[in-house]
Write a structure and sequence with these properties.
single chain; alpha/beta; Rossmann fold; Arc Repressor Mutant, subunit A; 2 domains; five-stranded parallel sheet; 8 helices; globular; DNA-binding; two-component regulatory system; WH-like_DNA-bd_sf
């Protein structure tokens, strides 16, 4: 089994780099490893990868700074793995643009599942109905084929999970999605983790809608989940 996806694994712990490289290569991915953020960033500018898996605490450049720097020029999937599992650290990681945050110690098999799910959702099977490519609602237009979102005439940068969330809710107006259903649709049925990731994701999307003065609002269904009303 092989594919053309290139993944950078960035961690100052050698055994973690080697462990993840071994598991990911068995899945057919190409993997390059780096022991600090600056080294990985320099490599990215020369040969951009398709996904970043990064630790937080590293010499020369920490994971948050690396995440922010890459996100300013690219929308590739970014997964943070860290021994720091406080809520503020998870929120920081998401605010800097990561798509997922996994606490150490973690299962390498779980990480491989998340990687596979991210790539699968980034490259969905083509739909024969081209009329479904553009979705418009109030001041938002979504172009499915190139995964772009515009508020009025301004394109809004979204991570791939942010795009999946707003796309899901806009395609199902007035339908309330539980946190578990959002996880099934965005992370996948085999996601291992809690529902806090959903709340963090909604906060990020709401912030971008608010900053761009969008008429579209994501409503909270207390004790259940979220929806967008017509």
């Amino acid at each position: 089994m092989t594919n053309n996806k290139l993944i950078y694994v960035v961690d100052d712990e050698k055994h973690i780099r080697e462990l993840l490289k071994n598991y990911l290569e068995k899945e057919g991915y190409n993997v390059c490893t780096y022991n600090d953020g600056l080294q990985a960033l320099n490599a990215f500018h020369i040969h951009p990868c398709d996904m970043l898996i990064i630790d937080v605490m590293m010499p020369n450049m920490d994971g948050f700074s690396l995440c922010k720097s890459v996100r300013s020029v690219s929308d590739i999937p970014i997964i943070i793995i860290s021994a720091k599992n406080d809520e503020i650290d998870r929120i920081l990681g998401l605010e800097f643009g990561s798509d997922d945050y996994i606490a150490k110690p973690f299962s390498p098999r779980e990480l491989v599942v998340r990687v596979r799910n991210m790539f699968r959702r980034l490259n969905p099977l083509p739909t024969p109905n081209n009329s479904l490519d553009i979705l418009s609602y109030k001041d938002i237009r979504i172009f499915q084929k190139n995964r772009s979102l515009f508020i009025n005439d301004d394109e809004i940068k979204l991570t791939y999970k942010e795009f999946e969330l707003i796309n899901l809710l806009l395609n199902n107006l007035n339908i309330a999605f539980s946190r578990e259903k959002i996880i099934e649709n965005i992370w996948g049925y085999d996601y291992i983790g809690d529902t806090r990731q959903v709340d963090d994701l909604v906060k990020r999307v709401r912030k971008k809608l608010l900053l761009n003065n969008s008429e579209v609002k994501i409503d909270t269904i207390w004790g259940y989940g979220y929806k967008i009303n017509k």
